């Protein structure tokens, strides 16, 4: 399942360098590779023992990295009552998504919060990132310091800090909106996501000189028009990447969500966390596998967008690690 | 963008206000609570009398043991992540065939982006008494082993969970070093080891520092791994302080623990950073002298 998702992404990754190979799809990926092997552009020294050991080590670690994922996907086909005890193969556990309202509601809450939080974070983060890159001043240091602080604070501290604060706002001050489950979850997810989007947008714009915007102004475009027609399109890949990353962040958020959630709007990971203590059933693995496919789909799109925008694989790696 | 009237930070104002309202203020409130106390069985916090008593309470052996435990797991986990991840990142960036790099990064990103909790549950299945590890041991004629709910299980879990966070920045760091400078070093007669210690490693150092911090900081505050693999017995600070808010309803003590966690994390980074700077001083001094000889 995962390989299939990575596959098409890979084909597109190669697009700018070798358009013909990309058109032919992934199947030609290896053929292109062997073509470059047969005509090496640089002299290739003989592989030493150390190189071979490194390669074997890397393969072992990749196997290690995929162990629990393979286990979860495999166990989602478990027809037994308990997740950890595999009794038979079947698709029963996937049915829980339709037959069990608790499971379905949890997934829907997660998706809803993910979409709202992503749009919200992308909006605030984009404006902040553009301001940081295009209107720098003394305030930039303060703001960057704040973003660093957000990124450095352990999630559990955010979580325990938000809970009393939202209770205070919602109950003591009587601001009803802060008692709404979806609003609370969006707030919980927004802080970190805003920081990430801001950082991505700023990094993208800093990498581009202001020439185009100046040219647009020189050609008598009003500021709003320059913003809409020049700045925004230039920033688009970063905004889109930030949007999708925020979506997956909030889809995965467990710690903050488990503190700020109100009963009736439990997101999926919090449902799973509570099930850890009471007994995990195979449907947890089944639904998680589906969520994994959604996440990887979003990430494949991020990868394609960034690759189209001309990022190197190292730049994509650092972007996807959250800036 | 209106150029005359609005201040420069105007566009960033919404994000600014939002982060103040839902990050700065809540964390400041926790800081404030940490000087308060739990007024009675049903109250969660009171701040009419301020004191350092909660911090003193945190420093008593009952609670401080967990901090020491966390520090041990944090340091050991980060070190293991580095030792395991660095060769992988080095191989990916400098030895792997160029056309495979995108695929290899995707292979690190997939586990990284798989839900943290779900990955941990995956290990729970593997390590459970009915799981593969235990069955393998039984097949070899040993007694069934119970690794689950022990410290080694938590250590395995954190190493696994934070390994991609180490590999990705290290990959970026080694990738930036590039082939050119390394070949130059080789052409000038340096051995592979010397190329590594004098060219690759110094150039990759900022990325290594980033990787170590990216693993160490969240690892110290880890909540999920210890909850799932460490069982009911809380042996990391994250769980302990969460339970002060969720079950014990002692917000003052929980807040003091949160502040203490931040202080210990930052403090230990400062101490380790200082030790590394001091420890490598002789080496760097020697290198500097040699560089001068070359340049003269």
CATH superfamily of chain B: MetI-like
How much helix, percentage-wise, in residues of chain B? over 70%
Spatial separation of the terminal alpha carbons of chain A: 27 Å
CATH topology of the domain at 101-280 and 290-320 in chain A: MetI-like fold
Structural class of chain A: mainly alpha
Report the CATH architecture of the domain at 101-280 and 290-320 in chain A. Orthogonal Bundle
Specify the biggest β-sheet of chain A. Answer: none
Query: What does the radius of gyration of chain B come to?
Result: 24 Å
Overall geometry of chain A:
globular
Strand content of chain A: under 5%
| Domain module count of chain B | 1
In CATH, the topology of chain B is named MetI-like fold
Oligomer: heterodimer
Uncertain residue segments of chain A: 1-41
CATH class of the domain at 101-280 and 290-320 in chain A equals Mainly Alpha
Quick one: how many beta strands of chain A?
Answer: 0
Radius of gyration from the alpha-carbon trace of chain A, in angstroms: 23 Å
* Tally of individual helices of chain A: 15
Largest interface: A-B, 102 and 100 residues
In N-to-C order, the SSE pattern of chain B is HHHHHHHHHHH
Please give the alpha-carbon distance between the first and last residues of chain B. Answer: 54 Å
């Amino acid at each position: 399942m995962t390989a299939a998702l990575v596959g098409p992404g890979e084909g597109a990754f190669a697009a700018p360098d070798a358009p013909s190979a990309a058109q032919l799809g992934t199947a030609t990926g290896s053929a292109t590779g062997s073509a470059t092997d047969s005509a090496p552009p640089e002299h290739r020294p003989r592989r030493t023992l150390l190189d071979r050991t490194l390669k074997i080590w890397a393969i072992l670690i990749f196997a290690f990295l995929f162990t629990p994922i393979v286990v979860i996907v495999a166990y989602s086909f478990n027809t037994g009552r308990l997740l950890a005890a595999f009794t038979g193969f079947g698709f029963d556990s996937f049915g829980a998504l339709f037959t069990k309202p608790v499971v379905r509601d949890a997934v829907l809450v997660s998706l809803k919060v993910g979409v709202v939080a992503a749009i919200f974070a992308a909006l605030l983060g984009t404006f902040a990132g553009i301001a940081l890159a295009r209107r720098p001043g003394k305030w930039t240091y303060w703001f960057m310091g704040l973003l660093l602080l957000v990124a450095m604070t352990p999630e559990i501290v955010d979580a325990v800090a938000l809970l009393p604060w939202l209770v205070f706002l919602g109950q003591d001050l009587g601001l009803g909106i802060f008692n709404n489950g979806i609003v609370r979850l969006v707030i919980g997810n927004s802080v970190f996501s805003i920081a990430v989007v801001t950082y991505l947008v700023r990094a993208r714009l800093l990498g581009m000189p202001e020439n185009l915007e100046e040219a647009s102004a020189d050609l008598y475009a009003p500021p709003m028009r320059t913003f809409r027609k020049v700045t925004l399109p230039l920033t688009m890949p970063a905004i889109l990447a930030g949007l999708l990353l925020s979506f997956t962040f909030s889809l995965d958020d467990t710690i903050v969500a488990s503190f700020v959630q109100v009963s009736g709007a439990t997101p999926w990971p919090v449902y799973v966390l509570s099930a850890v203590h009471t007994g995990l059933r195979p449907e947890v693995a089944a639904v998680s596998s589906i969520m994994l496919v959604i996440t990887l789909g979003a990430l494949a799109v991020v990868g394609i967008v960034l690759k189209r925008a001309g990022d190197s694989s190292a730049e994509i790696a650092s972007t996807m690690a959250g800036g | 963008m209106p150029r005359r009237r609005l201040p420069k930070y105007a566009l960033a104002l919404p994000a600014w206000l939002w982060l103040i309202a839902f990050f700065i203020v809540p964390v400041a409130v926790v800081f404030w609570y940490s000087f308060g106390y739990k007024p009675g069985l049903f109250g969660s916090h009171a701040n009419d009398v301020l004191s350092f008593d909660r911090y003193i309470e945190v420093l008593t052996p009952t609670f401080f043991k967990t901090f020491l435990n966390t520090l041990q797991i944090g340091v050991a986990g980060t070190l293991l992540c580095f030792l395991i991840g660095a060769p992988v990142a080095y191989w990916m960036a400098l030895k792997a065939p160029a056309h495979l790099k995108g695929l290899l990064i995707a292979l690190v990103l997939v586990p990284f982006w798989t839900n943290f909790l779900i990955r941990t549950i995956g290990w729970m299945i593997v390590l459970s008494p009915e799981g593969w590890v235990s069955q393998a041991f039984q097949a070899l004629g040993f007694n069934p082993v119970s690794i689950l709910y022990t410290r080694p299980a938590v250590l395995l879990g954190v190493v696994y969970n934070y390994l991609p966070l180490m590999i990705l920045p290290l990959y970026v760091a080694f990738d930036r070093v590039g082939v050119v400078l390394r070949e130059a070093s080789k052409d000038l007669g340096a051995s592979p080891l010397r190329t590594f210690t004098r060219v690759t490693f110094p150039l990759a150092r900022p990325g290594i520092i980033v990787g170590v911090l990216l693993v160490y900081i969240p690892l110290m505050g880890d909540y999920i791994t210890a909850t799932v693999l460490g069982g009911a017995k809380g042996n990391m600070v994250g769980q302990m302080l969460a339970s002060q808010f969720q079950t014990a309803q002692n917000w003052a003590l929980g807040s003091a623990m949160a502040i203490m966690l931040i202080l210990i994390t930052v403090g230990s980074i400062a101490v380790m950073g200082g030790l590394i700077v001091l420890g490598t001083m002789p080496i760097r001094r020697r290198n500097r002298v040699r560089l001068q000889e070359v340049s003269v």
